[in-house]
Each structure stands twice: as structure tokens, then as C-alpha cells.
Request: fold
Amino acid sequence: MTEGQKRKTGLLLALTAILLSAGIWIKISHNLPGQIAVPDPALEYDESIRRIEALKHAEPEGMNPLCRLQFMSHGGKSSQAVVLVHGYTNCPQQFKALGERLFASGNNVLIAPLPHHGFLDRMTEDHARLQAEELVGYADMVVDIAGGLGERIVMMGISAGGVITAWAAQHREEIDRAIIISPAFGFRAIPSFLTPAVMNIVSFLPDRFSWWNPELQTDTPETYTYPQYSRRALGQILRLGFAVRRDARQLAPHAKSIIMVLNPVDDQIDNDVTRELVKRWQSKGGNVTTFEFGPSLELGHDLIDTNLPHRSIEAVYSKLVELVND
Reply:
């Protein structure tokens, strides 16, 4: 072999090694949040109130009044406290009507805005700064506050809020029941085997914003949601989801019971990934069950917000109140 051929062969081998390494890097989820839970639960009602007031005081300027922290209290520690976690680009208003029903049935109810959410400027790009680590901190914070609000703690979240609730269910033993609704562990538009690659790629490419509804754009029925999503922020939600799935391979969930609520006609999230997590938790001895709304209800991905045009809100709310209070 001539010197020229040797150089060409060496370059070809080097290029092959680079491509293989890049392929492996793309396919394997990496840089997942590694925080463990840092419990600091409030033990008394007054301590929870002080923390709630501090949160309200720390809310940034420019918040939509509909999106500020919402706390529904019976004036003291109740038998059960319910924490409701809204979805990405939404805000506490999403859960207000359901929260009022849960409050009317005797629960203290807390709905706190996610980091970078709830601004009056609906075209803000601040939510692109969202990090999985912030969502972990948020989960710890709301569970800690709930410790002084009720003898039992129920945490319920939808979509990204479902992923946050799943993390809390995996790590926080203070939770008596976690109700996880249509969690965004994966998206229907992305084949599951490509999800790690998408998560990795969006983490270093320049961010892009897209309309949730290209036809309506800002003309949406809700006046408090962000009409655009950040691809990088969605990547951070996937990061947290992968962390939950990683931890579930090793340990049983700490929550005393978990109910996974699925919508079989959800056109946005990948239910198969969620079912895989349920099996993983059950194999570790977790007290995990599932409930599926019937396809005849024709529910959209957001089956909580009363401002969205679907006719089955009464059936959804009745069932969710039952799951909380059972």
C-alpha cells in the first residue's frame, strides 16, 4: 500500500469513527438532570402560608392577573391538599375551574405557575429559557408547601405538568396519590426511537418558535396561554421525562399510589411511552393503575381547560374529582 493509499485509508477510518460516534451520541439520551429530591416540607399550616406569600411576593412584573398563584383555602389544614400543575405555555387558569370543584369538596388547593409562565405578553420568548432542573425545583417546592396544607397530599398534572408530577411521584414519599394526565414523555409527531435524537439535537441548535395553531396564531379562545412553543423548551421537558424513565429502571416510585390517566385519541403525545413507564413502575412494586377516557368523548390533548371547545368537560371533571377524593 502506497503512502497516499495509507493516508486515504486513515482518513476514511477517522471519518467512519466520527460518524459512528456522532450517531451513538445522537441516539442516546444524555445530559439528563441528576438531582435527587431535597425535601423540606412545611409541617404546619402557618408555615405553608408564609411560603405561599413569599412566592406571591416574588412573582415577576408583567404577570397576567389570571395567571398568578392561586390558593383556595378552608382556613386551616384540611384532611387533604391538592396540588395542580398546568401544562407548558399555559398557566394556573387552566386548572381554576377544576380547582374550585376540588375546593368545594373539602380540599385545600394550590396552583402555582411554572417558571417563565403567565406573563401578560403572550408573545414573550422568556419560556425558551425553561430548564428541566427548574421543573425539578418547582416539584420539590409545591410538594413542600402542600405538607402543611393537608394531612394527605394529592398531586395532579397534565402534559408537561404530568411529567413534573411523574418526577415527584418517583422521588417524593410525601405524596399519597399522584394523578398523571397525558404526560409529555414523547410526541406522536416523533417516532419514539428518534425522540432521544431530537432531544439532543434541539439542545445545541439555535432555537425556533412555532405556532401551536398556525391558522389561529394569537386568535385563540384562551387569553392567557402562549400561542407559540419553543423547541428548546420542549427538549427540556423531554429531558425531565427521560430522567424519570431512567430512575424508574432502578427504583420503585416513592408516591404511595399513582393513577395514570390516558386519552386514547390524544393527537399530540405518545401514549405507548407512558404505558411503558407504567409497566416499569409496576415491575418495581409500585402501586400504579391506569384509567382511560373513552374515545367516544373525542377529547383533545388539553382536556382540562374549560375555554377550549369540547363538550365532555363534565364527564372529565366528574371522573377526576372522583380519582382525587376516592
About this structure: The chain has one domain: 38-325.
